[in-house]
Amino acid sequence: LILFKMDNTKEFHDEKPSCASDHSKQIPMDEKFIIKNIQSILEPSINNALIYNSGENISQSEFPDGLCNSEDIKRLLKLHVDVDSSSSSSSDYSSSYGSSISTLSEYCSPYINDVKGRNSTDLVAPLNFKCEDPRVGLLYDESMELHVGPDHYERPTRIIAVHDALLTAGLVDRCWSLSSWQATDPEILLAHTADHISSVDNMFQNKYPLRDPALSAATYCFASDKTKDVYCCAATATAARTAAGCCIKAARAVVRQEVDRAFAVVRPPGHHAECDRAMGFCFFNNVALAALNALQEPGIQRVAVLDWDVHHGNGIQEILYNRDDALYISIHRSPQNFYPYSSGFPKETGEGLGSGFNVNIPWIRKGMNDADYLTAMDLVVCPILDSFDPDLVIVAAGFDAAEGDPLGGCRVTPEGFAHMTHRLLRFAKGRIVLALEGGYNTRITAQCATSCVETLLGMPPPPLILDKDHFWPADVTGSSLNAVFEVQQSFWRSALFPCSSADPLDLKPESNFESIWANHLLRLQAEWVRLGAPLSQVRTLLPDMIGPLKGGGAKDVRQEEKGKEKGEKELKKALEENGKKDIDNDREISRLDNQGQTASSSVTANQRKVKTLQEAFAQRLSNRRLSSEITTAANEPMKKRGLNNIGDEGKKKG
Q1: Which of 636, 639, 629, 638 is nearest to 574 (CA)?
Q2: Residue 130 has what pLDDT?
Q3: Which of 64, 94, 446, 457 could form a disulfide linkage to 165, CB 3.0–4.6 angstroms apart?
Q4: Distance CA 281, CA 244 (A)
Q5: What SS3 class is residue 416?
Q6: What's the rounded Cα separation, in Å, for the pair 372 and 603?
Q7: How far apart are CA 653 and CA 596, in angstroms?
Q8: Which residues, in sequence order, are CB contacts of 432 under 8 Å at separation 6+?
Q9: What is the pLDDT of residue 584?
């Protein structure tokens, strides 16, 4: 690398540099060229300092103070070629020149490899680059496939399938390839203890001799024979360092504007790894390390981490819990009955300087779909990110919430993940890094990753599946998000309640989320119409829009569901029998499609005129001139939910 220019012998044998008339005082132009290229490699470390100045003598004042404290490097930068001014032959000049270059190589070699690995992305341009494509970096290394063990969910085919899918879709040829990188001890120490690093590096040789006798013929062992959630083999430490290093390198490439966005196809995953503990298939916390190393870069003051893996990232939370420059938001299944069981509750908001910078959004039951996740994005994640204003967004991109995953139990589609990615592109000037975490159905995980990379490349997200199982929030989603609002409003009130007011005539504080929830459902209903859903299908959504939000507990959910099924059937039947009377309802829905924002503002204005959200819903039903039979059919399940006399009040408003 240092001598790359030396092969061009004609340049310095046949053409004497213009400054050769006074070799004892000036640097020959060819050497200046070589030093300049060496400097370009060292540039991130020496803060773009010039090491030559148009043939003039190099003075001590030109050396950057921020340069590493190495006399060898300082000597490198001060090096002159001492050629006797009386030696005019090219052979004498070449001899002295070659001797000096050897000296350069001697001084540089201990540093070049390290600096090159830390600071150069080793970008390979896309084979099929399109002018309109953002520069998307892609990281992958086959060494991570060598972390092997039993017939396990976390297996090499996870990343093999993802990379193959990207190749098949032609996306690898549109991405900038970044060379892999093994995280160094100083980089890992930002998140983990020295003892933990040593434990991972020596895990196999320490644990393998003590393995269970049943594994006597195996080439792997478990870190703990009791939990068996972490296995290791001879290649595990290298794979773990590579996974962490690739995520760190992806973040650096983005913040240094060498690429615009990046996707790291890595394993083993990392978001469960704590400061001094490997757990949940994880060894080093890849995403936390990427965030903390990015914060070391000039100009990066705030990093946001979104974790949409179906499991809570207990490790990321622990590592970032006391920081105010790293926001952590996690959407996951409730730890009350799902791994890791011990963390991920809404009340965990951070400590010390980090108070308020930890946001947990737990689902209280399984089966959550695209609409549930996008609702969380629209009502919680994006408003908080707007307020936090990060310089970089890193996603712990686990795809085990996808429909068909053997562990997650949720119903998010590849299209849903694409829309989530698309929502994030407006933050941090589009500087976003996705790092693979979970996802244990290899085919589905590959499809989800492909959809996300397509979105990173600027392709519009594909249409969502327009049915109630995928694109309408569950009845418990409002309760889950209400619990998050109750905790986080003390930190992010202006973000979560942009229309909140101190006006005593305004809705009561405890009802603010109910108005936000109602407006969101109305906008979602209008979206169905915009996407071409039949009005008869849209009308079946109305029962889900009726009902209070109480506290967010599972008990309230069960109480609310008792009379729901009967009420829905009766309401649907009444709607069918009185279809001719629903013309005004159809017109209202169409109006929402054409004037969504106006309708939303009107709804908010109407809600401010009533005392409870239930009366607002009743007013909307009666304003749509639904028959008295519909009101009667809907009123019975409402009474079971505690909405007494809503029908009479609705008639008065009508």
Answers
A1: 629
A2: 80
A3: 446
A4: 14
A5: helix
A6: 22
A7: 23
A8: 254, 261, 262, 392, 393, 394, 395, 421, 424, 425, 456
A9: 52
Q: Name the nearest CA neighbour of 305 among 257, 360, 267.
A: 360
Q: Which two tokens stand for residue 636?
A: 């019975």
Structure tokens that stand for 64 in this block:
């950057």
Q: Where are the alpha helices (DSSP H) in 467-582?
A: 477-496, 512-530, 535-539, 554-561, 564-577
DSSP bridge pairs for 544 = none
Which amino acid, 471? F
Helix (H) or strand (E) holding 432: strand 432-436
DSSP 8-state assignment for residue 434: E
- Give yes or no for residue 633 having a pLDDT over 80: no
| DSSP label at residue 60 | G
What single letter denotes the amino acid at residue 125? A
CB of 424 closer than 8 Å to CB of 395? yes
CB of 386 closer than 8 Å to CB of 421: no
Tokens 């939370």, residue located: 317
Burial (Cβ within 10 Å: 0-12, 13-18, ≥19) of residue 517: buried
What DSSP string runs through 278-308? -BTTBSS-HHHHHHHHHTTSTT---EEEEE-
For β-strands 221-222 and 231-232, DSSP reports them as antiparallel
| Distance set, CA 1 to CA 5, 38, 40, 77, 206 (Å) | 9, 9, 12, 17, 39
Q: Which tens digits make up the pLDDT trace of 215-266? A: 999 999 999 888 899 999 999 999 999 999 999 999 999 999 999 999 999 9
Q: What's the pLDDT tens digit per position in 459-490?
A: 999 999 988 889 999 989 999 999 999 999 99
Distance CA 111, CA 45 (A): 11
Between 478-482, 507-511, 590-594, the lowest mean confidence (pLDDT) is in 507-511
Q: If you ran DSSP here, which 8-state letter would residue 124 be given?
A: B
Q: Name the H helices within 497-563.
A: 512-530, 535-539, 554-561
User: Among 103-117, 155-169, 434-448, which stretch is predicted with the lowest mean pLDDT?
Assistant: 103-117
Give the DSSP per-residue string, 353-403: GGTT-EEEEEESSS--BHHHHHHHIIIIIHHHHHHH--SEEEEEE--TTBT
Residue 413 in this model has a pLDDT that exceeds 70: yes
Q: Which two tokens stand for residue 582?
A: 């629903």
Is the model more confident about 81 or about 109?
109
In this structure, how many other beta carbons lie within 10 angstroms of the beta carbon of residue 158? 27
CA atoms within 13 A on the CB side of 344: 29
Residue 59 has pLDDT above 50, yes or no: no
> At how many degrees (to 10) do helices 613-623 and 646-653 cross?
50
Strand partners, 282: 279
- Give me the mean pLDDT over the 518-539 stretch: 86
Output the pLDDT for position 127.
87
**Residues belonging to the active site:** 272
SS3 567: helix
Inter-residue long-range contacts of 625-631, CB under 8 Å, 24+ positions, other chains counted: 625/581, 625/584, 625/585, 625/654, 626/575, 626/578, 626/581, 626/582, 626/585, 627/574, 627/578, 627/581, 629/574, 629/577, 629/578, 630/571, 630/574, 630/575, 630/578
Residues in the chain: 654
Residues 6+ apart with CB under 8 A from 340: 272, 279, 280, 311, 312, 314
Q: What are the CA-CA distances from residue 433 to residues 254, 260, 264, 322, 462 (Å)?
A: 8, 9, 8, 23, 21
pLDDT of residue 536: 79
Q: For residues 166 and 170, what is the distance between their CA atoms, to the nearest angstrom?
A: 6
